[in-house]
């Protein structure tokens, strides 16, 4: 009985081979094309996610680099203004010192372990200029070094997928 069905089916296919090719081939092509298109869309979506993540990581690295540069510049300017007591006695110089102090402190997270040291170092030049500059330089180098290492680590963690 089973072999009869297979023989009948085989004969039916042989008789209608042209019709089956006309119907099955376009359907098969449609299905294969649809599956390839879906796979391509999934790959494109994954690529967009990777590019978005990479873009976000690079933008964050840019922000961190700018933070480091601006912090370094403000600390250098602050140190320069405190270098000479004759320079920093005027109202404009005092205003610049206070502004720089505020900018430096506003950049820092108050919960940062070095925040109290930085506050103290920024306040010290008023009491003892030479010691204040040394203390500020030590604290600032530590902060900038730590942030630079963090930036480098973040850049090393960025994964670039092969195209």
Structure description:
With 163 residues, the chain is mainly α. The chain has a domain at 54-157. Helices cover 86% and strands 0% of the residues. Helix 2 packs antiparallel against helix 3 (91-107), helix 2 packs antiparallel against helix 5 (129-157) and helix 4 runs antiparallel to helix 5. It starts with a helix and ends in a 6-residue tail after the last helix. The model has no long low-confidence stretch (mean pLDDT 86).
Q: Which percent band covers the strand fraction?
A: under 5%
The overall pLDDT, averaged over residues, is 86
Number of strands: 0
For the biggest sheet, the summary is: none
Cα separation of the termini: 57 Å
Helix content: over 70%
Structural class, from secondary structure content?
Answer: mainly alpha
Number of helices: 5
> Mind telling me the C-alpha Rg?
35 Å
Q: Could you state the order of secondary-structure elements as H and E? A: HHHHH
Shape: rod-shaped
Unreliable spans = none
Transmembrane segments: 18-36
Keywords: Membrane, Transmembrane, Transmembrane helix
Explain the layout of strands and helices.
Blueprint (H helix, E strand, L loop, with lengths): L1 H14 L1 H67 L7 H17 L7 H13 L1 H29 L6
Descriptive tags:
rod-shaped; 163 residues
Can you summarize this structure?
With 163 residues, the protein is mainly alpha-helical. It has helices at 2-15, 17-83, 91-107, 115-127, 129-157.
């Amino acid at each position: 009985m089973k072999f009869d069905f297979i023989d009948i089916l085989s004969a039916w296919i042989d008789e209608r081979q042209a019709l089956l090719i006309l119907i099955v081939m376009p359907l098969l092509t449609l299905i294969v094309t649809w599956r390839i298109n879906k796979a391509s869309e999934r790959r494109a979506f994954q690529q967009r996610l990777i590019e978005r993540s990479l873009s976000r990581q690079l933008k964050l690295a840019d922000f961190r680099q700018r933070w480091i540069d601006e912090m370094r510049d403000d600390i250098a300017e602050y140190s320069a203004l405190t270098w000479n007591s004759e320079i920093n006695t005027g109202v404009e110089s005092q205003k610049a010192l206070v502004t720089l102090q505020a900018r430096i402190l506003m950049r820092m997270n108050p919960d940062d372990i070095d925040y109290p040291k930085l506050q103290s170092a920024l306040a010290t030049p008023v009491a003892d200029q030479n010691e204040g500059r040394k203390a500020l330089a030590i604290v600032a180098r530590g902060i900038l070094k730590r942030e630079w290492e963090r930036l480098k680590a973040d850049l090393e963690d960025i994964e670039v997928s092969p195209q």
